[in-house]
Amino acid sequence: MAFKTYLISVVGVLIIQWSVNPLIAAGTDGRTSVTPPTLVVQSGHNFAIQSIVFSPDGRWLATAGWDGNVKVWDASAGLEVGTLTGHSGAVSAVAFSPDNHLLASANANHTVTVWNFDTGKQKVEMHGHTEVVDSVAFTSDGQWLISGSQLESQIRIWSIPSGTESHSVKGRSFVASPDATLLAVESAEGFIEVYEVGTWRTTAHLMTKGRPVSFSPNGHELAIAEKDSVHVWNIQNAVEIAKIGRFDPDPNQSTLAVAFDESWQLMASGGTDNAVTLWDVKNNRQLWKNEGYNGPVAGVPVHVVSSLSFHPKQKLLVSGNWDNTVAYLDPVTGRTVRLIKHHTERLGDVVVSPDGHWLAYPGENDQATLWDLAS
Fold first, then answer.
1. Are 104 and 145 in contact (CB under 8 A)?
2. Strand pairing partners for 223?
3. 135-138, strands of its sheet edge to edge
4. Most C-beta atoms within 10 A of its C-beta, which of 158, 200, 221, 250?
């Protein structure tokens, strides 16, 4: 990767700290032990990290910060290999293209930038948004880049690699189907509109207010997170097939995190109810609810759950929480098998690399932390 030769950051270059953190792990005898040292990456950002994402092959980690920089790291070594500079404002989101050759950044100065990841050079800068751009994503075929601005209530679709704006719709959040043929958008009114990618015609109007969170692997179903529950719709005939969660709305609770396993048969949810719950999607049934890190790691109450993801290799469910912890849960039993707690600030998103080897999250201030899940 050409980054290595000339894009070495001046700030925080090669600063790596190995330290033993209090990761509580349950052994077969029920006793706890401390895991090997954790690689703590000193990000070199001058302000808080806004976004953190792995490349599709799991080799690279990109962090985006309020300081207007995007930094790229070798995940296996924790070494900074490049810095993308030139943003005139904070960088709020970052995304890799499916083939690893492009990197897109969403900026507070209302622009979206696409970088050539192989050379580290800016490829194109897109203008059109009138407010802070807070989300960006490539479709799975790499032909389209989608950006969103909640303040503007506008979703814009750009043709790649030209950077030409192809279409725009009113909306606050979005998700694309796995085969890149459909785009689900939370409209300005809060309902869900489904568009055909390319023609941009509306294929479905779903009368559920919420944010789209996930398509099923075949693209036929869409999950929509409402305030206190998750609705599953069949896209082909625009019929709601399941409502998962609280059936008696609680105005004081909100669903903040939703994750599906690879088969889309299991769904995990969490939020301000201070619990992680696992659901059988097909039968619309609660399988378990973890309200206190029950299991070998016990006695610690769950606080607000901000992120959830299924570990693709070790069959674990990873939970990031506002009590500054990361928990590994057994999806079968709901028991907590590991608990990481060594932070002084509320955690942001917790992400697992596509190959299941690494777990990463923005930690204290301008620091990102990597855990080796394969060891």
1. yes
2. 214, 232
3. 135-138, 144-149, 154-159, 165-170
4. 158
pLDDT tens for the 375 residues of the chain, in order: 332 222 222 232 222 222 222 233 333 333 333 343 344 444 455 556 678 889 999 899 898 877 778 888 888 877 888 888 777 778 889 999 999 999 999 988 899 999 998 888 889 999 999 999 999 999 988 999 999 999 999 999 999 989 999 999 999 999 988 888 899 999 988 899 999 988 899 999 998 888 888 888 888 999 998 877 889 999 989 999 888 876 455 666 778 888 888 888 899 988 888 889 999 988 888 999 988 655 545 445 557 888 888 886 768 898 888 777 888 899 999 998 888 775 555 666 788 888 878 888 775 555 677 777 766
- CA dist 148 and 138 (Å) reads 12
C-alpha 371, offset from chain centre: 16
The pTM for the full model equals 0.78
**Residues whose CB falls within 8 Å of the CB of residue 235, separated by 6 or more in sequence, listed in order:** 182, 194, 203, 204, 215, 219, 220, 221, 222
Q: How many residues are given for the chain? A: 375
Burial environment of residue 21 by CB neighbours within 10 A (0 to 12, 13 to 18, 19 or more): middle
58: left (phi over 0), alpha (psi -120 to 50) or beta: left
* 351 token code pair: 């992400």
Gap between the Cα atoms of 163 and 93, Å rounded: 17
